[in-house]
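From the shared-data thread, chain only:
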Amino acid sequence: MPGFPLEILFVIFFIVKTDGTCMTIVLIPTIFYFYPASLGRSIFIIGITTLIVSVIVGQLVSYRLYWIR
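Structure, as tokens:
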């Protein structure tokens, strides 16, 4: 992001990473508790995949927000 002072870039980076972390924190329990309710049972590998997918989505959200702002 050319043209911004370093302090503003730091603030934007902090806000964006906080948004991504909040998205991850919301997605993990949402997906983790939704899939057993819909499938009727809990599958271990889907539980692990839930964590991985939630972290990836949170990081993608923060990446997209960083370049939008």
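The two ends are 9 Å apart (CA to CA).
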